[in-house]
Every structure is written in C-alpha cells, then in structure tokens.
Amino acid sequence: MGIKVDFRKRYYNKKSDKKKGKEASFTLDVQFELGDELVVLFGRSGSGKTTTLQCISGLLEPNGGKIVVNDNVYFDCHKRTNLPVQQRSLGYVFQNYALFPHMDVKKNIAYGLKGWNEVNKEKRVIEMLQLLHIEGLEHNYPSQLSGGQKQRVALARALAPKPDILLLDEPFSALDMVVRMKLREKIKEIQRELRIPVLFITHNHVEAFTIADKVVIFHEGRVQQIGTPEDVFYQPSNRHVAELVGLSNIFEDAIALNVDEAPETLVLECGNLKVITNKPDRIVAEKVSWGIRPENLRILPLTDDAKSRENTFKACVKSVVNKGASKVLALEIAEHKNLLLAEMANQFFEDVDLRTGDECLARIEMSKIVIF
Amino acid sequence: MGIKVDFRKRYYNKKSDKKKGKEASFTLDVQFELGDELVVLFGRSGSGKTTTLQCISGLLEPNGGKIVVNDNVYFDCHKRTNLPVQQRSLGYVFQNYALFPHMDVKKNIAYGLKGWNEVNKEKRVIEMLQLLHIEGLEHNYPSQLSGGQKQRVALARALAPKPDILLLDEPFSALDMVVRMKLREKIKEIQRELRIPVLFITHNHVEAFTIADKVVIFHEGRVQQIGTPEDVFYQPSNRHVAELVGLSNIFEDAIALNVDEAPETLVLECGNLKVITNKPDRIVAEKVSWGIRPENLRILPLTDDAKSRENTFKACVKSVVNKGASKVLALEIAEHKNLLLAEMANQFFEDVDLRTGDECLARIEMSKIVIF
Amino acid sequence: MVSVFLKTDELKMLEQVWFPLVITLKIAITSTLLVALIGVIISYLLARRDFRGKWIADVLVTLPLVLPPTVTGYVLVVLLGRNGSLGEILYDITGWTILFTWEAAVIAAFIVSLPLMVKTTTAAIEAVDRDFEYAAFTLGRKELETALFITLPLAKKGILAGTVLSFARAVGEFGATLMVAGNIPGRTNTMSISIYSAFQAGNNELANLLVIILITMSFASMAITAKLVNSWKI
Amino acid sequence: MVSVFLKTDELKMLEQVWFPLVITLKIAITSTLLVALIGVIISYLLARRDFRGKWIADVLVTLPLVLPPTVTGYVLVVLLGRNGSLGEILYDITGWTILFTWEAAVIAAFIVSLPLMVKTTTAAIEAVDRDFEYAAFTLGRKELETALFITLPLAKKGILAGTVLSFARAVGEFGATLMVAGNIPGRTNTMSISIYSAFQAGNNELANLLVIILITMSFASMAITAKLVNSWKI
Amino acid sequence: TDKDYGQSQITKITISASAVFTEAFTDIEEDFETEYPEIDLIMNFGNAGSLRMQIEGGAPIDVFAPADTNHMDILASKGLIYNYSQKKLAGNSLVMIVPKGNILNISSMEDLIRPEVKRIALSDTEASAVGRYAKQSLSEEGVWNGVQNKLLTGDTVKNSLVYVERGEADAGFVFITDVSSAKPDTIEMITVVPVSTPIAYPIAVVSSTMHSEESQLFIDFVTGEKGKSILEQYGFSIPQNG
Ligand SMILES: Nc1ncnc2c1ncn2[C@@H]1O[C@H](COP(=O)(O)OP(=O)(O)OP(=O)(O)O)[C@@H](O)[C@H]1O
Ligand SMILES: Nc1ncnc2c1ncn2[C@@H]1O[C@H](COP(=O)(O)OP(=O)(O)OP(=O)(O)O)[C@@H](O)[C@H]1O
Ligand SMILES: [Mg+2]
Ligand SMILES: [Mg+2]
Q1: Does B329 have pLDDT greater than 50?
Q2: Does residue A167's CB lie within 6 angstroms of at least one atom of ligand 1?
Q3: Which of B116, B295, C31, E166 shows a CA-CA span of 20 to 30 A to C23?
Q4: Is A35 in the pocket of ligand 1 (CB under 6 A)?
C-alpha cells in the first residue's frame, strides 16, 4: 500500500511556447515512495507542492511518469493509463476551498456521500460538523461563512466519504491556533484509523513537526530530501532545505580541516570564523556549507571561564525581538563581524536580560552544527 | 490621525429574518481607538475580524455607529455619512485575494496607480515585484500562479498606491517562513515610513508578537482586550483571550485566599490543586480563573530539594510532542490528576530527557501565573 | 373543444381570442421545454468538450437566426412534408404527416429559438469556474452528475435567460410556423398568426385586443420569472 | 452607386446579389454596434443596480421578441411616421422622414435584437464575482471605470454571445424591417427581404444563391469570432 | 442619402405596390423615368396588408397599388387616399391548381368534396384577396361546407403554391399571375374559377402625398397604353375603367 510517484509536469506560460519547443516556465519532477503515513510536503511558495497534489488527484495530467496509490495505477505514461479522478477515491482540500456556492454547508459536506442512505448521511454530516467545530453553521451558504469556517467545511467535505487517500493543500492555513491544534490531532487520528496515505501541505514548521510521519522537501520543482521531521529539520541535506527548515545561520564555502589531535572533530573555516564540530559519519568534501539553528546558539554572560570553551565568541546584541514565548537576538560577533541569530526561551532570557548594544558570549553548540 | 471606530454590524442568514425582527445570526460590535500604528486583529475563526475590515473599507455598511480614519469621517450613522470606498484611499488585501483574472501580474499591481505617469508606474511595479520576491512572474496571469504567489500579488497591488490605511486580511497565510519573515519586516518598515494605521489579521502568535504595536482581541463579535503584544499575551483579561493567546493551562473557579504570613501572595485553590501566586495590583474577586503558559512550567528531575519549593508537583509524563525547536509535554500531576501542558526548548529538554511514563517535577512559576 | 360554442358574435370573438391563446401557450411551452432540454445538452458539449468541427456545430445551431423565417419554414416543409425526406419516412411508418399540426409549429418554434438557448447557455456554462467541477470529481461524482448538480445550477441565471428568450421567441414565432403549420383556425392559429392576419384583414380591433393579451401574458410570465430569481440564494 | 451598372442580365444579377449584401452588412453592423453599446449599458444597470420597476424595464426590453415582427414594425411605423410622435418632431426639424430608409431598418433590427443582447449580457454580468469589483473600488476606481475595465471584460463571453445573437438576428431580421423600411430595390432590400421576395416570386435560383451567400457569410463571421475567443486568455 | 432630398428639381415618388407587380412595375419604372426624367420613382413592394398598414402609420407613400380592393377600401373609408384618383389598374383571374399529374383526377370544384381530397391550399380567407375570392366561389358552388375542414389557409399565395408544388395539398387556389412563379413542372392548372365580381386591382394617390401631380402622372402612365401593354405582358388582364 502507500503511494509511489515518479512523474514530470511542465507548465508553459503560453500555449504556443510548448509547440515552439521553448523551455517550460516551470518543471516539476518528483519521485517518492511512501507508506500509509502522514506525509508533509514542505517547500517554498511556488515550489510545486500544489501541482504535485493535482497530478496525484488526476486534475492535472503529468507529462510523463507513473503514479501508484495503494497498488492502483493512477497514471502510467507508457501504458497510457490515466484513471479518471472519480475512480481515485480521493479526499482533496483545495487551496481555494472550491465550496459549492449554491449548496449550504450540510449539502456541501454530504455531496461526496454517494450511495449512503439518508440516515447514515445525516449522521456522518453531524459527525463532521462536530469534528471540525462548525456545528450551527449547517444551513449557512459558503458566502455566509468566514474564511476559517470555509476551510473547515472544505475539510469536512473531503473527509466525509472516508477516502483512500487524503490530499490536503494547506488545510489549516486560515484557522486559529485553538482549532488548529485540535485538528492536527484529529487528522493524525483519522490517518491512523483509516490507514491511508495523507499528503499534507503546510508552511508551518511546528505543524510539520508535530503532524508528520515523513516530510518531503520541495525546491523549485524537485524533491530535495525525504525523511522524518527530525531528519529534515535537524539534518537538512542541502542549503535549500536548511534555509527552509529554519536553519537561519548558514555559512557557505567553509574549508573543512581535520584536526590531528582530535580525529573525531573537524574545524570549519569560513573567512576568519572558525568553529569546531563533530566529524560526521559520511565523508565531507573539502569545501562545505554549515549552519546552526538559532535555538542552538547559547547566550552566556560575559564571564572569562565561559569564553575559553570551544566555539564561543564575544558578540554584540544588535536587536531583540520578542516572539512571545522566546526572544530572537541578532548578534554581531566581535571578531569577524558575522551576524548570527539566536533564539532563547523567555524564561532563560530573563537570566541574561540583554538589550540592544549589550555584549555577551555566544556559543555555537558543537554537536548541533549541521554540515551539508 | 489614527483610527477610531465604534460600530455595529448584524448578519441575518435569511433576508426575511431581518424583517421578521428575528435575532441576527451574528452581531459584530466593535470599539477601538488607535494611532498610526500596526494593529493586529486576533481572534478565533468566525469572530468578526474580516467583517471589521470590510466595514472600515466601506464594502459593508455597518448598521450603526461611526468610523473615523485619519480624521476623515468614513461612516457616521447619525449624520448619514458613508464615504464611498473609492475615496477612502485604502490598501486592502482580501482573504481570497480577488486578483483580476483577466490581467497579468503587472497589470494587477498597476491597477491602483491611477494618475501615475507611465515611467513612475513601471518603476513602482518593479519595486513591488522586488519587495515581494515575485520578480519574473510579471507576465503570468493569476491562474498561472501558486497560492503564495497570488497572495503576494494581492499584497503588491494593495501596497503599490501608497494608501492612507492598510487593511490586511491574513496577508501571509499562504507564504513560506523565509518570505514571511522578510515580509514582516517590510510591512513594519512601510508602516513606519508611511505613518499610517495598518490593520493586520493573523492567526499566527509569533507573527502577532513580532509585528504588532497593538493587538486587538476579538471574541464572538466583541473586542475583548486591546494592548501591546506583551499585554495581551502575558496578561490576558479573560478566559477567551487566555485560550486564544496560548495559555493552554487554564483553571476556572479557583478560590483566591489571602495568606496572612505573606501578604504579597495569594493562594489559588481549585479542587485540590493549590498554587501560590503574587497578588496582582488590582483587587481580585473571591472566585477567579487562572492560567499558566506551557513554557512557564519548569520541568525538573525528581530530586527532593526541588520538590520542597512552592508550586512544585510530582507529575507523570503522558506524552511528548516534538515541535521542532521545543518539546511539548502533557503532564499528569500525581496528586490531583490535573493535566498540564509544558513546553521546553529542545536544548533544555535534553538535560531532563523524559519519555512517556517517566516521572518528574513540574513547577508552576509563581510570577508567571495569570489571574483573570 | 371549440366547436361546442354557439357562434354568436360574442362567442366568435371569444373563440378568436381564446383559442389562439391556448394553442400559443401549448406550442410555446412544449417547444421551450424541448429547447431547454436539448439546448442545455448542446451547450454543455460546446462549452465543456473539445471536438473537431466544434465551431461548425456552433454555426449550424445559429443559422436559423440568420435566415428569414420563411426560408426556415420552407426547408422544414421540404423535410417534413409527406414527400419530404424525413416526412416520407414518418408517413410510411405511421401514416401521419406532421405538417399542418401543432406539433409542426413546435418544431418551427424549436428551430428558431434553439440558437438563443444555445448561445446564452454556452456562455453561462463557460463562465462557471471549473474548480467546482473538479471538486465534484474528487468527490467521486461522474461528469453527468457534476453537470446536473454543479455546473448547470451554477449557470442557472444564463440558462434562465436563454429559456426566457426561447419562450418569448416561441410565442412570437410566426414566419416559419405559418409555413409548416399553416393558419388553420382552431388548429394552428397561434396568437402571432392571428394578430398578423387580423392586421392584414384590417381587423384592428381584434388585432389590438390580441396584442394586449399577448403583452399581459408576457408581463405575467416575466413577473413569475422575476419572483423565481429573487428567491435564489445565488 | 448601383445605377452606374449597365443593366445586362448578368449585371442585374450582380446587382440583385451585391446590393442586398452590402445593405444587409451596413444595417446589421450599424445596428449591432448600437445594440452592443446600449444593450451593455442597460444590462449593466439591470444586473448591478436596484431600482423600482426594474422588472418592468426587463419586460419592456423583452417585448419585441414576443410580438410578431410585423406588429413591432407597425408600432415603429406609427411612431416614426410623419404623423407619429417621434416622426413628426423629426420631420418638423429636418424635413426628413426616416421611414423607408436604411436607417429605419437599423432601428427595426435594433429593436428586435436588443432583447437578445440584454438578456444574455445581464446574465453574464450577474455571474461576475462582485469581489473583483470591490477590489477595484478599494483601489480607488470609480464604478464606471470598474464596469469598463473589470466587470465587462470578465463578462465578455456573454457579451460576445449576445453580440453574435444580435448580429445574426439583425441579418435575419425581416418582418419589422419590411414594415418600416419597405422593400425598395436598391435602397432597402436586405438579404432577408430579397430572399423572401425572390422566393415569393418563384425566382428560386436567386433565392438559393442568396441563401448560400448568407450562410457563407455566417460561417465566415462565426469563424472570425471563434478565432477571437480562442485568443482570449480567459 | 444626399440624393434623397434637397437636390435640384428631381421629385421622388414612392409607389407602394403589391408583390405581384414587382416585375411589371420595374419595367414600367424604366419607361416612365425616361419619359419624365425629373421624376424619380421609388418602388416599394410588399403584401397589400402591410403596405396598407404602412400608409395608415404615416409612411411617406405617394401611390398605392394593392392586389386587393379591400385594402384600398379601408384606406378610402379613412380618407387616406384621394378618391378621385382611384382607377382600376389590372385584372386577374382565380385558378384552381393541382400537383403535376393530377392523380386524384380533379376537374372541378365539386371534386373537392370527394373524401380522397384531403387538403386544399388557399390564402387567408379574410386577409387575402385569393382567400376571399376562393371562399366566395366555393360558397357559390355550394361546396364551401364540404371543404371547410380541408383548408390550409396559409399566409400568402406563395404558401399555397409551395404546398401544391410539393404535393402537401391536393389542390389549391391562386391567381393566374402566380402560376408562373411556381417551380416548373410541379403543378397543373385545372380551371379558371368563375367569380361573381370581376377581380380588378385598384391604384390611387395617397392623400398625404406632397407630389399629387407627379403621382397622378404615374397613375396615368400605368393605366395608359404603355403601362397596359407591359401589364398584359406579365399576364394581367386590363379591366374596363368605370
Ligand atoms: N497554469 C500554470 N501555468 C504556468 N505556470 C504555473 C501554472 N500553475 C502554476 N504555475 C507555476 O508553477 C509553480 C508551482 O506552482 P504550485 O501551485 O505547485 O506551487 P506551490 O508549491 O503549491 O506554492 P504555494 O505554496 O505558493 O501554494 C509556480 O511557480 C507557479 O508560478
Ligand atoms: N453574509 C453573511 N451572512 C451571515 N453570516 C455571515 C455572513 N458573513 C459572515 N458571517 C458570519 O459572521 C461571522 C464573522 O465572520 P468574519 O468573516 O468576520 O470572521 P473572521 O473573524 O474573519 O473569521 P476567519 O478567521 O475564519 O476569517 C462568522 O461567524 C460568519 O459565519
Ligand atoms: Mg499551493
Ligand atoms: Mg476572516
């Protein structure tokens, strides 16, 4: 079971461009093979996530390749198979919802319940209304709903028929945190209960982390990395992934030097910024990029004993931004004028209590340095 | 200057309901007075945020009240003033974008630049394309854009004419973190540069916190609290606000007892859960609600000396969820079976390294308890 | 039905007025139902399917609008008459000739109002956002179901406009009808034909009366349509 | 123009064909331009404005479709004739009577095709999502600008359908035209009228030739329209 | 339209004539205009009823020549024509026709009551001259009641012709002048139907004319020798003007 895709889709801005043999304005080329799990598609805006879902759903026809879901061949370019959308048993939440404007909420939700008897239909609709916290809106028309309500109706409509695969295009983007957190749980539950592949697009790191079994990272139409949230967030495989998962401090073209005294470690030299790190298992090139997540920078008061530890630099605070539960500090390292972002929970920030202009020590945690 | 509103808007699900004198299905009743600052409207889905923007923009006519922006009376029920939308000099990003489908990106953005000469128009459009990182898409039609690209075009279109007030309805909801963070800065800069009121709807806590000068909290059509992000996030004025801003641990109907030995403190008794807190400046009722943010719960290893401190309870870990940079633990307090959520940065979590089933100590930070 | 009346002057007047009214409504309603049904199908295909020679189908449908009704009528006589290609087959099978019956008038009205229905409805269907159809497909609904419950309801304003036009045209149809159905008192003398011949005969009184009735009828049916539209949510 | 031809049989044929074609195009194009312009304005008001007696305006526009064209023509003759209310004023001012001129035919074609334009366009405009208009308002655009650059372009498929219908109807118009413009060889004998009279006179050769030309013309103009539509992004 | 008005001495006269006169009047127009170069004739052909309605409506018509006295009478009773100018222009005769071959062997009006004769084409019995004359003759023959349910009362003579041509009607009544406009070899003329009042088409000057003299000139011309000969050429008989 699960989902196995390997296909290409090309967009041309003008119909004529294709005939003229011009290069496509956007080319999507994806391969992945995943089980019945909750997969988050993660990527920059315009990287091809929606297009991927559309190809899997059959609303777009790929230009080549193969798509197999739950052992059904949805699409196979060579065999000219292209299963009609209707036979794919999908639950698809469109990025723009596409609620039927001439049906009220109840009818919208019930629309996919073809062949259910009236009693079961009614029951299922009520179930869905409750699940998505939209009870009381059943007789509203889409034009009488708020953005977040519309989104939940779209979700309800997609979930109601218990599909064989769920394609959710940013399904929570318009929801407040309270419902959003509840719904994350529900979606996970539903996935576990129905044991179906769920493809979930989100731009929210926390959401990706808390909900995903696997994360597929897109960049400019190509899959960059596939793995558990921990894999991709803590071990991004390249610069694009790194940026995307919030590894804000990135240094490119660092020279990796072996240290004779400590064969387990590596020195990364990037301009005049030198850091020591654990040597990764794989062999690294001479020139590498490395990065560190803001929350893996430790901020310490300016005491001398701390300063002597590895990867610890004197820095000047350039700005402090309150993110609510944590503060983000922009630090300029005194020696090499590099700018680093550090994030720390408010409760620990209180201990150092820094303001713009203050000086402090910043320690790049050796074990948290990511080389790619 | 700034914005001053005090109006009511009633929705009826059926036209006939209004005539029949039935109760409205939704009533919005807002008052606030704010300067030329960046104001975040924050509230549950369906609480009336979009409706508020629509009334201010003139796309909806309130049922009563007054709206004054930058000393211009936009709407005054008594004087029957209702300034046409066109004369309000707005920049409005619709929740559904409403890009003109028959114009390419460039034309969409330029559409509000009435009366500009061609050279300036061209310059401004290019400026906007760069600002929003959508260079290269200028000849795409809306149907050829991804969700996030559409959203940025909508923003560009609204910003281009340098309006007197910006109404942004979840303008970043479809953007990836990288652009999103850049654009947060840009919007703040634009607000400072143009010195105009900016009303910004978002469901993202961090966004609200980092971008807002003031936050207006909505609940069921009413303003609950107005204040700086710190005010509303750390001192929510009631249960609704508390839930909304992520004060996940809420205890209602606690009895507030004065402690004779320590007049500065208060004991909150809620069932058999007792916590000590600093007495707030204002007088509190006998029955209060209180809450604590998950990140203000300290998790400590099970050592005896820690246990004796105030508000420290033995707890059992029910679940651990990785949010990426931090972990959220569901804790059951051994004595009273209350469930508490605690959040801690990964780096500190490593120190305690708990798993489901483990036991630990949870300390509710006295100074962080919020009474409302 | 009519012949039971005694032919006093008053009754004759009644007959001259009542019969055309009934037959007109019968013809117009039948033809409009047919046009609506078939027109919607054709429109859907034109709007949503791609096939070779689509524009030729488009022109063929529009043609009856360009030709003078008499010519259309003549073509129909040639086709449907006892000796016409279609009519002969029909005659051989049933021994019945459709020419000079009210059914022939229905066919004439159908042909001349079809272009109105098709053009209007095609435009309306094309204006329906395909996303709604796609959503229905993902919910397992076949194209037919989707067309019936999603596309057409969303195009209903255009369909109604087309139907109103077709009905009006059927009521007003005259040239082609006269040719294929004749002007047989008590059988095929529609309002239009009666008005025409009353005017031709210089019987302005009767003509005016009929015109007034026709106008009243139009107002009434339009008022009903307006009410219907008002009750729509969308 | 025509009189310079020598009246040999061949030239006469040419004249019998060429003149009706030119006059028909002249009338149909003029009337279609007018109908498109005025029809769009009326449709916009019907679709986007609320006013008292809106449905009455709606019925009045549709009326010419219900009435036999001859009656419409008669009403126009009464209005535009030297003794008619409008005609009298015109005559007093200019000493000119519009009846029996090609301008009269334009008026007839205008009146009978207006309902087609208005119904189709109104439905199309109503189908345009108001959010786009609201967006234009927030960008400081007046209603007129918005209508011109947002609403109408978005309703263009419907407007085109209405225009095609109106053009076809204007080309095919016959009953009312015959009444107000007469059948004056060399002045007002349009294709339809020529076909009609050739047919009546038993001149089937000419009638067939004219019908073929008319059909060719329709195909040509439809092909142009189809090309136009194909080039549209939306 | 510059030549329509306001130019030199050319007077424009509009003649509204029934369609039967189309060819004859077109020929006459040529002759007339050579004789009177200062007069420009504008020929407006149509069916008599419509032409009458145009005049009633105030259309700028100078001379009216309907193929039906009825319409002239209606205008006369309203004072819309100059009675003094009215003249008989041309005569015509009613004929009975059948499809080529005459399978039903119809030879007289009595044959029409035979059951195998199912459909009889004639024009509107009130609105058109053919219809009225045919009804009158059928009544006089005493067969009216027998044929009443077989009648196909089309709009114009042309409809009747088409029906008979295509064998949709078993017999029909038309004017002798119409027979030539039928498709060749499709119909047979059976008899000339006797009518009690001779069929004569009138012509008169419309009273709203502003060129009554010139209009009169035209009437004189068509009813004069040249006109007569052309009319006869097209199958009309020339009535005695009384
Ligand atoms: N119909 C089209 N024609 C041409 N290019 C298109 C078309 N649709 C999408 N694109 C382009 O393809 C790319 C991928 O679009 P897609 O909608 O898959 O992005 P996405 O990853 O879903 O982005 P977002 O997060 O913004 O929704 C975009 O750069 C977009 O501009
Ligand atoms: N046209 C309408 N008729 C009836 N009720 C409506 C209408 N429009 C909105 N509502 C109701 O009004 C309430 C407020 O809607 P609004 O769009 O202002 O919410 P919101 O705060 O913007 O929510 P969201 O965050 O989901 O966008 C909702 O409960 C909605 O159901
Ligand atoms: Mg997308
Ligand atoms: Mg909203």
Answers
A1: yes
A2: no
A3: E166
A4: no
CATH superfamily of D7-49+68-126+156-226: MetI-like (1.10.3720.10)
Within a domain: residue B203? yes
Tell whether B254 and B221 lie within a shared domain. no
Please count the structural domains in chain B: 3
Edge-to-edge strand list for the sheet holding E39-46: E39-46, E11-18, E63-65, E199-206, E81-92
Q: Which of B15, B69, B111 should one mutate to test binding to chain D, selecting the residue with the greatest count of D CBs within 10 A?
A: B111
Residue C4 has pLDDT above 50, yes or no: no
Same domain, B48 and B189: yes
On whether both A163 and A303 belong to a single domain, the answer is: no
C interface mutation test: which of D35, D52, D66 has the most C CBs within 10 A?
D66
* CA dihedral for A346, A349, A353, A355, sign (positive or negative): negative
Is B209 an interface residue toward A (CB < 8 Å)?
yes
- Does an H or E element contain A201, and which? strand A198-201
Residue finishing a domain among A206, A234, A262: A234
Of B170, B233, B328, the CB nearest to A147: B170
Do A208 and A85 share a structural domain?
A: yes
Q: Is the per-residue pLDDT at D26 higher than 90? A: yes
pLDDT value for B171: 95
Report which of residues A159 and C12 the model is more confident about.
A159
Q: pLDDT at position B346, please?
A: 80
In a domain, B27, yes or no: yes
Q: What's the pLDDT tens digit per position in B101-113?
A: 999 999 999 999 9
Distances (CA, A) of A80 to A62, A64, B136: 11, 10, 35
Among the listed residues B351, B307, B352, B353, the one whose alpha carbon sits nearest the alpha carbon of residue B333: B307
Does one domain contain both B184 and B41? yes
Q: For residue range B128-166, what is the model confidence (pLDDT) as tens digits?
A: 999 999 999 999 999 999 999 999 999 999 999 999 999
User: How far from chain centre, in Å, is Cα A302?
Assistant: 37
Residue B203 CA, closest ligand 2 atom number = 25
B94-121: average pLDDT: 94
Cα A219 to ligand 3 centre (Å): 13
Measure B115 CA to nearest chain A CA, in Å: 30
Candidates E53, E153, E166; nearest CB to C199: E53
Compute φ and ψ for D16, nearest 5 degrees.
-65, -25
In angstroms, what is the span from residue B136 Cα to ligand 3's centroid?
Answer: 18
A275, A292, A309 - which closes a domain: A292
Q: How many CB pairs under 8 A join A and C?
A: 61
Nearest to A149 among B11, B46, B322 (CB): B46
With 70 as the cut, is the pLDDT of residue D4 above it? no
Find residues 199-218 of chain E whose CB sits inside 8 Å of chain D. Answer: 208
Its pTM stands at: 0.91
Q: Is the pLDDT of residue B193 over 60?
A: yes
For residue A325, is it within any domain?
yes
Q: Which structural domain, as residue segments, surrounds residue B298? A: 294-365
> Which residue ranges make up each domain of chain C?
7-49+68-126+156-226
Quick one: average pLDDT of E170-192?
A: 88
Do A110 and A187 share a domain, yes or no? yes
Q: Which residues contact A109 (CB under 8 A, 6 or more apart)?
A: A125, A128, A129, A153, A156, A157, A160
Q: Name the band, by pLDDT with cuts 50, 70 and 90, for residue E6.
A: very low
Whether B contacts E, i.e. 3 or more CB pairs less than 8 A apart, is no
Residue A306: pLDDT above 70? no
Residues of C in contact with D62 (CB under 8 A): 164-165, 168, 218, 222
Q: In the prediction, which pLDDT does A110 show?
A: 95
Please report the pLDDT score of residue C5 as a whole number.
45
Using CA atoms, how far apart are residues A301 and B22, in angstroms rounded to an integer? 65
Mean per-residue pLDDT for C85-97?
83
In this structure, the answer to whether residues A8 and A142 fall within a common structural domain is yes
Same-domain check for residues A156 and A11? yes
Chains touching C (at least 3 CB pairs under 8 A) are A, D, E
Going by C-alpha positions, the residue among C165, E142, C45, A303 that lies closest to residue D119 is: C165
Chain B partners (3+ C-beta pairs within 8 A)? A, D
Cβ-proximal residues to C39 (8 Å cutoff; 6+ apart), any chain:
C114, C117, C118, C121, C162, C166
**Other CB atoms closer than 10 Å to residue B353's CB: what's the count?**
9
Asked if residue B239 is part of any domain, the answer here is: no
Angle at A321 between CA A315 and CA A324, to 5 degrees: 130
B residues 283-302 near A, CB within 8 Å? 293, 295-296, 298
